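Q: Give me the 3D complex with protoporphyrin IX containing FE.
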Amino acid sequence: FLNKQNHEKRSQQPPRLGETIPYVSNIWQYMTNNRLFMTRVRQILKDTPIAQCQLGPMNTYLVTGNSNVSLIFRSSFTSEPWILRILENAGGYTSTDMAHYYADGSGATSRPRRGPSELLPPEKRIWHTSHRMHDDTLIHARPINAFATSFQGFFAQELEAFPADEWVENIQIFSFLKSNMTAAATRAVVGPRIMDQNPDFIDAFWQYEKTPATLAFGLPPWINRRAVRIRDRFGAMCREWYELADRDFDWTGPDRQADWEPNFGSQVSKGLALWAKSFAFSSQSIGGAFALLLSGLHSNVIPICGWVMFELLQNPELYLAVKEEISEAEITNQASKVYFDHQKLTSLPLLQSVFTEVMRLHVSVLITRTSTENITIAGYTLPKGSIVQAPTEVAHLDESTWGKPGHPASEFWGYRHVKEIETTDETGNVVNKLEFFMSGKTGSFFPYGGGISICAGRFIANAEVLLAVSMLISRFDIEFVEWVKLDGSFSERAAIDDIRYANAVAKPPDRDMKVRWRRLW
Ligand code: HEM
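A: Here is the predicted complex, encoded as structure tokens.
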């Protein structure tokens, strides 16, 4: 009987998210009212761990549940079709350069996938070499430490533009972060020249920042002409910067090994340029690759940082507790300058808990994979080539995983990911201290995705968020004044996620927080 039931389930189809106008309603709602779309997705996934959904021309399977989500991070799934869409539509790569990707079916792992490309020499395997380049320039300790040092230096310069010991009025936190973190992190990664060459660089970036998700997953570029124009404008800034940087750089000189130098910036940027050159990419595609790198760098970190600041400033008790905790990571160097040990910051339990909570509530992305073989999920057998999506928002808001008495999963609670443990201090006294805990939640918390395609910039992102927040709250006295709309006019309500961002990973706030502040040091 059980066998018969299982067989019936395998030949059945999972329930379907309804549409009033076939092929149109879901994709339209997804792009224009993502909040409502996700509410419907959450609703259907309450009753079933897998549901079908027509998103424009694509039939997708939406999945939830720890084991189902973990399954799509395994090697029977690939994210390559999605990356192709991003590179082609959002990066604006040329068709000649895209041809390298289409011709290489060997995948990103060291062992090539079986098929016609499996005999390609390792240096011609574009997916694999790109992955290795990310490992070398974004994952290893050296580039992360180098980023933490240079970001801290540049962000400190931004902060020191404010007079010490004087109250400054009318600071809009999110708008401040958008300008000043963008400036500091851009200099840290690609050096100062791109901003010197383009006085409107920051504006052009924040125009561009909205386009990658729309161009990659929404309307095709030939309809979405405005987004294409914005992409091409920012891409041109990156291309022109790259052409000059490459012309002036001595690739055989000592700066090739420097952690940071003013021409190309960091090893992240030199690694990307060298890798692209090794495939003889055009400057247009290299410009697009840098535009996407800068988008990865700023578009998620800065909204997340904004939300952390908003939450702390709304909760004075939590603010003070975090302020006290981060003092443990302060170091005074020989020049008597105070700076932060970024590794220490990532081990502070309360700060980690607040950061995790903000990522849980404000990262919203459909992690998308295509199956490379027939696969059974939640009892349904899906054919090879099926598109499977795991919405972070469903897993991240699941009441049974995250809810605590008095603290529903939908609400921010800074202490959600810490527990108090008894321990003994250096003098042998029993003391209580907080410990961060988060184990066993791979399929319930995946703001950085998972498997081989997991976000390559996650360690840099962690360092940047924690450093920026720590620098702000340790160096300033900050007082909340009022909520304002993004144009600076008064708002009666607090910020919520900006509805205009669909599948944009970190959702920015739709309101800003006006504060006054005084720099202490
Ligand atoms: C809070 C900040 C960030 C979040 C939430 C985030 C999230 C993500 C997500 C969800 C993916 C797709 C993963 C998947 O499909 O499994 C991704 C990919 C990626 N991210 Fe991030 N990201 C952040 C910051 C960054 C930064 C700072 C950089 C670069 C410096 C970066 C570079 C990348 C790259 C290169 C990939 C593609 C990885 C691959 O396909 O191999 N990200 N990110």
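A quick observation: The chain has one domain: 2-110+126-519.
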